[in-house]
């Protein structure tokens, strides 16, 4: 008997629309299944449903979840509670909000276990040590907000592991963590599951994470499983067009590849389909795809995919193997730089966060600034744009000195340097339409109004591939990727010579990230200079010409992206590179795909 | 969506509650006390000016319509009412600061003597009301949050809306009509406490005024409790507690309650302040011998020292509870 057996799991909203449709899978003890999907795919709903739990407004309407021989969905409320306590551990996405701020972590760790607190303390201490945390009383007396993000996540993992469950469900546990912390946590997860013989379901939007931790990989889209199989089957020889498309959109640190985004946008949760849920965005679509919903069929490699054209897709996917791109060859020396920064120091009150930073941005160049959270990269970009005033150093823009403070800068300088924020949900005014958002800077800088402004706005929106028919929509009606494009269009409308992009892709799904990165690359080809701030080395490889590696406010390494990523000199860069997860890909030359 | 929210270093860099913040608390209280004194001084000016501006001449009222002009002038001189306003204010303020509230114009007895028993009566009434309001609001708010959007919650919301929208004296009159005079006649319609008795020797007299105060207080405060409970019950840590398989009782009282209580405590202190102010109407309605009814009597009798003393007293009490709310709120935020 398998440790975990899920059959026909279905979750619907109160209004009857189905958000998880007939999900089935099985897991042996000690096996880890990676469940991957983009936002809205229903993966987190599945994760909660495995505990017999549905969020307010949603209900589990059918199926079985058998863990350790018990069907959780058939239990009475009290028995279900006992079963959750004994059989299943859950690790939440954001431990900062999932740990109770008013309770000591010692209490939170012991309360979910059978038996008294005293009996359980030795076990808790043992588990805390396994996850690399202190286990003394002083630590147990702390409150969650006195721990760092990584420590909080370890506490949450210890909490789930300590009771020795049959199954652990991880709901995107590494999303908020730095790459190095993420690498540690993933290593630990794999070890814990193997050592304790626990089955685990690991939910993530990140294929690299799932590929690192999962023995099995299941791909979800629009509430359905589209493909499932072993890690090798799904990642190396994907059979479903969606899995392939998803893999195509993942950037790599090893090669500068063109990223292929998936056309269209993901369906809203609960949308209804006649045929295949992916048909509208699929490159392999046929008429019969839209006629009836395809079933999961076994593929020749042993996995299963929900596609009527599995064999055709597998035979032809080699066509999609991409030629590596080459970054622009070294530009002529002596080009005046768009921006040069010398000896930038910045601080918050008495805490200095940037030390003696110097760099140049050449015309048409993309300078990537990479660093982990707390490295000072956002402070740096805020200094450049003039929002952070507590700094010293000299800026020269186009040969003219640039005043450090925004209020001292002339209108023309402001117009030539534009900023795109990390979070498109917060950076667009929810009460302004897309067109208004783009026209506001036009009016401010050029005094354009009415027809002239609309024409320019249309041009800017077309450059970011936002159709003009969306112009009168409000940000809330757009997807995350579309919002970020609008934010970029707003910056482009000012006709800047330098664009500062602060983590513009970190809040986006990989397929959407791919489209934004490709968009920025085309803008760069048009001669726009960019400073691209990110924590993701793979994105740096995709878009950067030169890179500055920032650690604790100091530049530890800089140079051409190729040379820094192929042969990093500084131990910090090496560590960062080693901790950055990769999706293993078939090598075009040695690929031995059938057909 | 993977918007980066929590991060190792960001958390480390965040100010940890340490000695610096703890030492900031006395400083905060001291600063509040200082601004409080200024506020109270302003109140004293307003009270003084407002009472001076009241229509009617005090001496005329005391002496009656048949008094001669000499008698009026003589009385004005005795009372110091012929002096310039500024020096009258100065005399009044300096005597108030030394604890002398002056003598009642109506009875001629010292104000502090007249008020002592009434302050005690009012404080007793308010204290009992608050002791009932706080746990009841918590219970009602919690139940409404747990049964959110069900029949219980909806009917509670409707009722509390009606009660909150109805003026206190209307509710009081209805209660009197229902239990005291017209329908049931089970309780005394007026709450006269004989002088020299402590209020709790007459529990039957206290039932109706307390019932009205508690009803008004609970419907207001429990709505705030309900909202903060709903916020907490929707939180991820409560979700995790459910997922961990904890019993409902533990989730509600150990996980949810401390977090839901925090935002309700400042509201409760403001509630206490409002209860003091609201007692004027309730006490008058039930003829309860407290400072509220004393104020109404004093206004009717043009008893300036009484009015000034009572209003200053209420302002101080109101102010103290407001400050308490602020301090508790700040403490809560810094946690």
The CATH architecture of the largest domain in chain A is 3-Layer(aba) Sandwich
Profile the largest sheet of chain A.
8 strands, mixed
Could you tell me the mean pLDDT of chain A?
86
Identify low-pLDDT runs of chain A.
Answer: 588-595
**Estimated radius of gyration of chain B:** 25 Å
The computed structural class of chain B is mainly alpha
Assigned CATH class of the largest domain in chain A? Alpha Beta
The CATH topology assignment of the largest domain in chain A is: Rossmann fold
Q: Tell me the domain tally of chain A.
A: 3
* Mean pLDDT across residues of chain B: 81
What separation lies between the terminal Cα atoms of chain A?
37 Å
Number of domains of chain B: 1
**Discrete helix count of chain B:** 13
Give the DSSP E fraction of chain B (strand runs of 2 or more residues). under 5%
Order of helices and strands of chain B: HHHHHHHHHHHHH
CATH architecture of chain B: Orthogonal Bundle
Rounded radius of gyration of chain A (Å): 25 Å
Stated plainly, the CATH topology of chain B is called MetI-like fold
Helix content of chain B: over 70%
- Separation of the first and last Cα atoms of chain B: 29 Å
Q: Total strand count of chain B, please?
A: 0
